[in-house]
Fold this sequence. Notes:
It contains eleven helices and five strands, in the order H-H-H-H-H-H-H-E-E-H-E-E-E-H-H-H. The chain is mainly α. The protein folds into two domains: about 5-130 and about 255-265, Peroxidase, domain 1 (Orthogonal Bundle), CATH 1.10.520; about 140-255, Orthogonal Bundle (Peroxidase, domain 2), CATH 1.10.420. Helix 9 (about 225-235) packs across helix 10 (about 235-245) and helix 10 (about 235-245) packs across helix 11 (about 250-265). The two termini are about 20 Å apart. The model has no long low-confidence stretch (mean pLDDT about 95). Ligand 1 binds near residues 37, 161 and 168.
Amino acid sequence: MSKPGNYEAVRKDIVKLLHQPEYDDGSAGPVLVRLAWHSAGTYDAETDTGGSNGAGMRYEREGGDPANAGLQHARVFLEPVKAAHPWITYADLWTLAGCVAVREMGGPEIRWLPGRTDYVDDSKLPPRGRLPDGSKAADHVRAVFYRMGFNDQEIVALCGAHNLGRCHSDRSGFDGPWVNNPTRFSNQYFRLLAGLEWKLVTLPNGVKQWVYEDEDGISERLMMLPTDIALRDDPVFCEWVDSYAEDKELFFEDFAKAFAKLMELGIRRDARGG
Ligand code: DDH
């Protein structure tokens, strides 16, 4: 067991578990990033409810939200780390793991602070349905992220996380990765979103998503959600899609800031950081 407060030791153990040859594209990284985001993304600024405090996904009420399907894999990956460092809260562990995973997959360093509690405050519990629905349009995306306190630029930066990982037909119903190398953090998602011709298809399960077909009509395995395409087609969002497609450094900088802000939603610390 490490000494309480030794977050460096926790970081090291998170790095060690990222390599998972039997899982998805060989990395636990993407699903850990999604766990961190979904733990925080329930925040509502107006009522100060939701957010990563409380690690509510441990319980059916939040963990069983269909939007969180598949995130049990991420929680299971982290159990040995929790066992080795029992002093860290789940809320801190999940958010830290997301930040460490981004960095280890080649992304920016994200400023992360400890201090989240696992105490579940019933008055702060988010209702289901606060996380975004991939089948919807730009107005839905704005409603969800404005509720958390983000602006249009931050929304686009955050959605650049879809450079990582994939959709699973048995989780969300959508299917496939956004980019060719889904375990390497880059601005490829924006370059493909802005640069390729996307075609709307209906999957056998009835779910609609966009796919890329090359000149010979051969369908590549790359995909976009309707909410991803909405970023390309919205007059304000698309300016940022283009900027991030052109400038990887700018994207990394803006992503790091916005993700750090996401991890802090609803978190308050006293002067000693407690
Ligand atoms: Fe996402 N995301 N996401 N996403 N997301 C999915 C996977 C991943 C939406 C829907 C989906 C963000 C924003 C949105 C990641 C990170 C982030 C899947 C597939 C769906 C559906 C799930 C599955 O089948 O396993 C929608 C809608 C939005 C939106 O903004 C409108 C943001 C902001 C982030 C972030 O991290 C900041 C990651 C990583 C994945 C890949 C997970 C995996 O298992 O691989």
